[in-house]
Amino acid sequence: MMSIQGIRGVRMRRGLAVSVAGLTAIPALVLGTGGSAQAASCTTSTGPNQKQVEKYLHRPVDGKQSVADCKAIRSFQSTYGVTPTIGYAGPVTWRTMTTLTAQKAAGKDPNKAKKCPTDKGRIACVDLTRQISWIQDGKKLKFGPVPVRTGRDKYETRTGAKKIYWRHKNHVSSIYHVSMPYSQFFDGGQAFHAVGVKMWNPPGSHGCVNMRTADAKSYWNLLKNGDDVYVYGRKLGT
C-alpha cells in the first residue's frame, strides 16, 4: 500500500505533467516575459495577410511571423482599436490598413471623384468604402473629411439620398440601450452620432454613422433638419 506522502507525490507529478502538456498544446501563443508567469499575450501564428501587413509596417517582408512582427502588429491594433489585440496579421487588420491608406489619400479633396452631389447646397457626404464623411456646400468643403464607423455586415448603413429629419442631442437608443450623443437621424433608425470607441473598431455599428465626439459635435453645429445627406460606396468586409 502506498503511503499518503507517496500518493501526494504522484498527484503532484501528474498535475505538473498536465500543466506542461497544456502549455505545449497552445503553439500559437507565447507567454509574456518577466519574473512570474503572465497570461498569453502574443500569437506566433503567421496570418494570411502577413506580407502585406509587414510591408505596411515597414517590417522585413518575409511572410513569417516573428516576435518583432507581433509587437509591431499589436501596437498597430492597439492604436486603432482592432480586436483581438494579439498581433495576428488577419483580414480585419489588413482591411483597417487599407482603409487608413484610402483615408489619408482623400486629403482635403474628398469629393475629387464627384460622387457626392454638388448641386444641393449644404450636404453631408458619407463614403462607406473609405469610411469617411464630410460636409460641403456646393463644391466648397465646409468640414472634414473625418473618419467614421458605419454598419457591420448584415447591418449595413443604407446608401442613397437622405435628409436629416430629427435631432436629439442626448439620445439613448431604445433598441440597444446605449447613449447616442449628438444624434441626427437621416434614414429610419440610422443617424450620425458620437461613440466612445475608435473609428476602426470592428465589426462596426448597427447601421448608424459613428463619429468621434468632437466631430459629431461639429456636425451638430453645422447641420439642421432638412439638410441633405448622401451615402454611397460599400464598406470593406460587408
Automatic annotation (TrEMBL):
Secretion signal, residue range per the UniProt entry: 1-39
Pathway note: Cell wall biogenesis; peptidoglycan biosynthesis
Catalytic residues (positions): 193, 208
Gene3D superfamilies in alphabetical order: L,D-transpeptidase catalytic domain-like
Entry keyword annotation includes Signal: yes
Keywords from the UniProt entry: Cell shape, Cell wall biogenesis/degradation, Peptidoglycan synthesis, Signal, Transferase
PROSITE patterns for this protein: LD_TPASE (PS52029)
Domain of life the protein comes from: Bacteria
Chain ranges of the L,D-TPase catalytic domain: 121-232
UniProt xrefs under CDD domains: YkuD_like
InterPro entries found in the cross-reference section: LD-transpeptidase, LD_TPept_cat_dom, PGBD-like_sf, Transpep_catalytic_dom
Protein name, as recorded: L,D-transpeptidase family protein
Species of origin: Streptomyces laculatispora
